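User:
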Amino acid sequence: MKVLKLVLAFLLLLSTPAMAVEFKGQNIDGQKLPAKAYYYATGGVYKVQVRFHKKRATIYFDDGNQITIQLNQEAIADSNNIEGFGMLGQYPINAIFSLGLVYSNNWLGGSDNQFQQSNPLSGLWKISLE
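Assistant: Predicted structure:
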């Protein structure tokens, strides 16, 4: 019975497709590519390099900073419209959760407006490959 369970688990692993970011049918995981990144919250456009890994993209800025975002799709249909979500200090664990720090100007809660609305576009990025 234990052998059967091991064989079934092994077959399940073999049948599970490997997740990788694809563009025009080609796997582009691990390649560092020149791109522009648009941050929806501020309207800022940055000249960056991007490296894809599974359903994530790490954006490398010229000043040495980087951010990892969770991509909306694994298969890239339009190289000028690659969207994903991620915030500075956050690392996506899976499709739902991320782990990290939340940056704020009021660490001790000294703000008069405790229930200040955040920008709904905060964390949303669009990558355009060059």
